[in-house]
Design goal:
Number of domains: 2
Oligomer: single chain
Order of helices and strands: EEEEHHEE
Helix content: 10-25%
Structural class: alpha+beta
Strand order of the largest sheet: 1-4-3-2
Strand content: 35-45%
Largest sheet: 4 strands, antiparallel
Shape: extended
Radius of gyration: 18 Å
Number of helices: 2
């Protein structure tokens, strides 16, 4: 990765990412002028997990389910506002140090 332009405090940064095989490329762009501030950044993935991870506990035993159900309800009520976030979030719920549930919130599409 290399810094290519100066970023002035208060400017908005957007990180664009794309995958090419086992490599994920990153580019940070200044939104106000469209110039790349960081270019040539990437991370190589050694192992890629695909597929669905099964929950290790039942949904009724997790208190966090109520929070995500509320978020889901709000997305249905205000879909345009949710889409304006333009991001995808992965939340991993842990219990005793192990992941027991994963939530993916796609507010991009």
């Amino acid at each position: 990765a290399r810094f290519t332009k100066v970023v002035i405090p208060g400017q908005t940064l957007r990180v664009d990412m794309w995958r090419n095989g086992n490599r994920i490329h990153f580019e940070t762009v200044v939104v106000e002028n469209g110039t790349a501030a960081i270019a040539g950044a990437y991370v190589d993935l050694n192992a890629i997990k695909t597929g669905i991870i099964q929950n290790k506990v039942t949904a009724s035993t997790l208190k966090s389910d109520a929070v995500f159900e509320y978020i889901n309800d709000q997305i249905k009520v205000q879909p345009d506002q949710a889409k304006s976030v333009n991001g995808i979030f992965l939340v991993k719920i842990t219990k005793d140090g192990e992941i027991v549930k994963e939530w993916t919130m796609d507010l991009k599409s």
